[in-house]
## 1
Amino acid sequence: MKKPLIALVIMMIFCISNMAFAADSSFSDLPSKHWAYDAVTKLANAGIVDGVGDGTFRGDKTMTRYEMALIVANALTKEDKANAENKALLEKLSTEFSKELSGLGVRVKNLEDKDANSLKITGVAQIRHEWTKNPRSLVPDAALGGDPYYTGQPTDKSEIRSALYVFIDKKFDSNHYFHAIIGNDSIGGDTRTDSPMEFEEAYYASKNGNFEWAAGRFAPTIGKGLLFSAPYLDGGKVSFGKDVKTTIYSGKKTDYSWLLADTQFKLNEHTSMLFAYNSDKHKEYYNSKAVGLEYTGIPNINLKGEYGVNTAVNAKAVNDGNSPKGMYIKAKYKGANPFAVGSAGAWVGYRKGDNGFDSHQYTGALSAPNNWTYPAQGSSINDVKGFEYGVEVTVAPHAMLSFIYGDLEAIKVGGDGLADKSQKFLISQLTWVF
């Protein structure tokens, strides 16, 4: 076993062993006669409180101050739906549980008002170990007009990656803001580019009712993550609509121009639907459409899936003249909250993507082996099918540990397809939110 992997395992064990220290005053019982119970019951009846944990509010159950703070944090995100009386209740609850809310990373209203025009800096850091049965080369940036970033050999089945992303947000007023992400990722200590940090996003946005426009650099995500999204685009974005919301990106990544779009809406209280589209300028590699569904009507369970087809010229060429298709479904139980030590989740998913469906193999929401090339990839759904299993748990304040195993195999082996049938992988990852 490599020394870096031994160090990573020791660190993970150390984090898990620290779960016990989370018992502080936030977990003390809230007396059954406390006024907060009546206040939250009123908010629940008004549709402002959804609940905590399993998504329900049980007024007959005695809670800890921490559990009540979770409910208040949820309610604060829906303050715009509250009338004057309920806003007053939210203000009172915010004051009562200000300590717990601060521990959860929630900024209570009076602090928001005070710091409305300040610069907010947050971020995410990750360290992960990746093992792949048969590492494969991802399509380098040269395919998009840039330079390839090869940093290893295809025999490197085991690797350490680290990443740091810093989020910068400046709100000028209620309708105008600036957002940026400065990021760096590395493999085995080797940075992704000649520059140790680069802008993943940096744009100015302006809102007017349900219409918003923005200009700058974007790291776009469309749909539920099935379709290709360029690692970043320089250009513009518009979004509009309330019950039916549409978002459109148009911009350039090196020498390629892209158009990305999605439309999302609710069919009912628990079911949402979407349509997504992406295309490069000449429809060479991508001319993809997708439809997706998400269902949240089962307590503690989230179900979602997406199905798409790519009709681009080169996509058909490597798939025996047929338009390659892709799909995935995923069922997730609960989930880890970085601000709630001990919270956890698990999921199982299935994916299938014909050869050519995502030839550049850079999609946002799915997990897959990250192999030995740069830029670091988030996933792939190209010439692959099989099941994925994952678990996650918050092991310390702001720190989540996750394990993902993919029991995947290539659909097409040899020729234009992959060289190896097995595409199994295992990822172990620690994520810090700050």
## 2
Amino acid sequence: MPLDYYDDDEDKASAGKGARKDFDCPECSANNPTDDALKDGQEVMCNYCGCSFLVKATDDGRFKFREI
């Protein structure tokens, strides 16, 4: 795994509880709700600091975020 990916640890707690419809910004830690469930290859933007990230799904259903 590249070092520039942020591992969203909250995915551990929500695994198996349905689709994720929010993410914590790796830069400012703000929680960002989303209209649709997160998916691999999606681009998301923090509503608070404005940073953009590429979502990557892992084989175990967790998400990683890379700043773009």
## 3
Amino acid sequence: MREDLLHFIWKYKKLQLKGLQTTNGDTITIVSTGTHNYNEGPDFFNAQVKIGGQLWAGNVEIHLNASHWYAHNHEQDKNYNNVILHVVWEDDATVFRTDNSEIPTLVLKDYISTSVLQNYQQLFSTTKKVFINCEKDIASVDSFLFKNWLDRLYLERLEQKSILVLKLLKDSNNNWEQVLFLMLMKNFGSTINGDSFLNIANNVTYNVFKKVTNKQQQSESLLFGLAGLLQKQDITDTYYMELQKEYAFLQNKFELTINDEVAVAFFKLRPTNFPTIRLSQLSSLYVAHQTLFAKLMQAKNLSEIYAVCNVTASSYWDNHFTFAKESKKSKKKLTKSFVDLLVINTILPLRFCYAKYIGKDDNEAILEIITSLSKEKNSIIAGFTNLSVNVENAKEGQSILQLYKQYCVKNKCLQCAVGSSLLSRNS
């Protein structure tokens, strides 16, 4: 038995509502269960309950054992003085407020149907579970309910990604263009070099970087120099030497220093993901669009975003992946799949936050764009697909990731629409 089941039973009134009584024999009528509180304080705020014919308005606290009231020191906390009903599974103690007045107690186990308990035990049974708790039943959940839940989960995921955006915004004194630069740097670095690229971006203000985006070579020299890629003295490659010279000038002009913590990696990366290629592509993006932030925030659809991101690394990289070592000639263009990741992880979360900041409702455009994207390919989405859950696009893919990471893994089944639906069957 878990306390979250008791929360679920109370919240959705999954109990026998007629004939409810306190442990002292007073009749109970639930008018309103109140608002579920997931933070500190009583579990449900602003409930309305008739006890012995008297209507009470206040808070409800829920415990497995009544004695947990004392284990959690609620008798010493004034925040619990407004508790009008103590809802428990086992009544093993009488509880009092700080003024020594007794709090009425409802023992839930006396009013629960066996079907609720059976559904709960089946949901959390570990027998042969290999992926998620509801893997045997998730495909049978009503499709309309499930799709609506996925829509809510995507917006929840955007809210979660907003945490980083808002932190960067605060650190940059509300400079949205710098936030975009920081986020693009992190995402151009992907998993291996993301943190290193972000450190590079933190070593130079966006205002300084903006001053060198009129020329590709200057822009590249700044990024390569801050990444520590221009420190070798034994390379006689003409372009490399030009970048060294340019960076020395910029370093002196803007008083730049290389952060010793920055260490970009090539190991375990495909050549197209080498930091040299990604930094050049990012440089090209800013050189091509002097108003990049505005264009990305105002793009009406996915096609316009693709048009903005239609850039390649500079011509030197047509036959190079690293300095001074020639390779087969090929244009190092930003691929559709890479741009899709930028849209998911950078552009849309930023648009979501920016729209709220300026008081604009951009959700329709955001949902249209994310729905136009193909779903990602990863083990989590594959796991749900194997359970006959149809994931149609990137919005649903992001929702599935949110579902798995924030609910399934954490066993928050009773806060999930799927788990709630399964638990409510035949009850």
